[in-house]
Design a protein that fits this description.
Radius of gyration of chain A: 26 Å
Protein name (chain A): Vacuolar fusion protein MON1
Domain FUZ/MON1/HPS1 first Longin (chain A): 228-350
Structural class of chain A: alpha+beta
Helix content of chain A: 40-55%
Largest sheet of chain A: 12 strands, mixed
Shape of chain A: globular
Helix content of chain B: 10-25%
Order of helices and strands of chain B: EHEEHEHEHHEH
Region (Disordered) (chain A): 1-122
Oligomer: heterodimer
Bound molecules: guanosine-5'-diphosphate, magnesium ion
Structural class of chain B: alpha/beta
Number of helices of chain B: 6
Organism (chain A): Lojkania enalia
Biased composition (Polar residues) (chain A): 34-58, 92-119
Largest sheet of chain B: 6 strands, mixed
Distance between the termini of chain A: 47 Å
Amino acid sequence: MSDTEPRASETTPNNPPTPPKKSDPIEQRDFANPTINIIQSASRKASTSDLSSISRESTPPPLPPRPKNLGLLDSRPSTSHSTAPARPQLVSKATTQLSYSDTNTYNNETQSDSHSSGASRPKNYFGLNFGSRNTSDVEDYASMRSFAPTEVGIGDAESMIGELGGDREKSLLRSLGHRFEDQESESMFPPDPQFEEAFKHEFDDIPDMEADGSNEESVMLQWRGKLKHFLILSSAGKPIYSRHGDDQLITNYIGVVQTIISFYQSANDTLRGFTAGDVRFVVISKGPLNLVAITRLPESESQLRTQLDALYMQILSTLTLPSMERMFATRANYDLRRPLQGTETLLSALADGFTRGSPSTLLSALECLKLRKSHRHIINNTLLKTRSENLLYGLIVASGKLVSVVRPKKHSLHPGDLHLIFNMLFEAGSVKAGGGENWIPLCLPGFNNTGYLYMYVSFLNLEHPTKQMQERPQSRSGDGDEVAILLISANKEGFFEMQSMRNMLVEQLQINGSIALIRDAVKKGRPRCTDIVPGTPLRHFLYKSRGNVQFVMPGFEPAFADSIERRRLMNLYGKLHVQLHGKPTSLKIHHETSTTYISLAWTTPLFELYCVAPGTTSRAALAQAANKVIQWVRMEEERVFIIGGAVF
Amino acid sequence: MADLGAPAQPKPSSSVKLVLLGEAAVGKSSLVMRFVNNDFQENKEPTIGAAFLTQKCNLPTRTIKFEIWDTAGQERFASLAPMYYRNAQAALVVYDITKPSSLTKAQHWVAELQRQASPGIVIALVGNKFDLASPSGGEGVDDVDAAPAAEGETNEDEESIDARRVPTKTAKAYADEESLLFFETSAKTGMNVAEVFTAIANAIPETSLKGPRGVGGQTNLGRQEDARVNLTGGRTEGPKEGCAC
Ligand SMILES: Nc1nc2c(ncn2[C@@H]2O[C@H](COP(=O)(O)OP(=O)(O)O)[C@@H](O)[C@H]2O)c(=O)[nH]1
Ligand SMILES: [Mg+2]
């Protein structure tokens, strides 16, 4: 999908200019005036698709050069599986909903070898015979022109080309429908080498600048090549945190950002964000801090705000609000990096989670380990039974998925707080790598941002639960089987009390068989779509239960096994999410379609559902599949969600 | 994992509470990881809060179970430190031989321990990252060559093999003055790591030893003292004797 639409416009000299609908000015207006969103959303809805799959025309095709006079040819992907970094927004424009579903239905029927008459191009189109391919392209072009709906024809020539490109891709796809069906693991998104390349290096460290400045240029280039930056600075302009680059490197940028922020502030205006070229800036000011996100990923302002909020919460979690304010009260240009020392890894783990794409953050919801209701009930009761006097919250967590919680009646757990804890335990290596048991002072800002709680953490060795786990898998690869017991107390001297509760708890869980059940559930992992609904065309979905503030999803495998595919899936979810949540009007149902996928976002007072299927799927089939997921969740509700939990 | 050579008849065992203190990034967690897991990790992430680990150490006549608090060295945790050293019988105060400021910090910790910890606490001063010193420089106590390097900041950008900035004799002199055990170690190569713990085990006054179960807060002295160990030679070089590492 479209990853970084704006980028395309930057580097695409020989492509048709972006059609008005997608142009940057509109993006800018999004920031300037939220009401624009209404219009945009509405029009997007009407037009089926979206800002979603913008092509990366910019991408130079690695294969033989092709005629430059047809911009659309350049956008042709070189690999066979992906049909084209099409410009779906154009597709949608050209195509009415009706024609869309027609096409789709048709595709479904022709999944076998026979292909549609509409697909007049030779079947061996993807045979990589470029000579003939070009010829056929031209033919396509010509034949497609006549297909173009007249109303679109009125538009300017360039958008016309875009239309054609889109339609053409669509019919190409049609002819290849079976391929997509068969090859589950093939990309759901058009290839985008430039994005892939950037993403591959996104998490690489930037080397230090040499003292003599000899590598300055390459360092700067790497810095600018990052898809995403997070900067945190004090309102006095002192750098506090940057995801990429050392101080020396970011000083200039901090200066610029600071200047811009104070410019707005002096005008009694608060800068919220802006778009410059292909880059989106979002700033939030929180007391003495300014937090900045700079992204080339397709993320909305509000999504970026949520991310910045989480970083802010992480800082509060380290310092507490009053103590941070005290630090700045004594000296406005206080260097906050000192008291934050050692937590950069937590901030970076959060930041990288956002850059990789985090369903939990997107939905502001938690994921639970799927267990039978009666099994979870036993675990809950065991927690209650072994609960120690000074326990505030007790949690059992399997690699970021909640297994069970025990909590006081009057305190619920804030998902943002849990996210910080899960980030610390399962994403950042600090606690994991240390070994042994841990006693961690932390502030849970959602619970109370003024004081510390103390968290006892012990990772379980599921095979030998009573043994202390001394060594844990260091890499994230082992993350499926990390189960941690977290016991949170307000008593800072409570370590040994919590430790003995842990020992009792684990002993009981072992006796009553719960450890084995947890181990099995963890080993099983997330189900595949096809385990959930046999034969479903869905490749992935997110279902959020609004009432429980929890979500459930299938595994990313096989369709989104690698991190790039996953990121693209999250890009798509992000866009769908915007459609449902764009203020002030929100849609109830939104479709988003490209040549390679069709997706759906659906919200009701009870749930939000986002799902994606190959482009060959008809709307009707997609809707049916979505309904099946909802039925499944309804049936499994008390297994996939923790309802109520153990309360004392 | 520790009891490899355990005799049929269990030796008397006692537990020793030990706390690691020192500036962030000097290698406290790495020393513990070497001692407990015999493992080392480059670019280890900083400790958050404190970690509690246990490891047994087999001495000829008894088994010592270390209950180790590995604290985070960051400033903001400083106020929590007393909680960890309050009942400790031993402390490992660690500095980084490539970073003079970390020795200063270590000296502060030693002073604080001498003021606030239990009077009998055994303190070992440990200069870590020995592997970063050049083979010629600083191995001996009278290490003349290392001294100039200690002052020179110019070394930093050179392809210098010797990153040592704290001469052995400086630290050793200070340790002697304060009656501390003293070792230079490398968590990376494992050099002297077991020795530090063994030396501590041998240096714990027997009156402060207690059963392995006395994990609680109270200092509950001298419970099972049958197994007397000759502690007079406390600071033995004790190379790996029995220590399970
Ligand atoms: N070369 C070298 N590096 C070490 C040694 N011990 C620790 N380190 C490194 O120093 C850094 C800080 O170590 P760590 O154990 O986290 O220090 P702590 O903050 O005192 O616990 C890590 O990157 C370690 O890999 C050592 O003996 N030699
Ligand atoms: Mg540490």
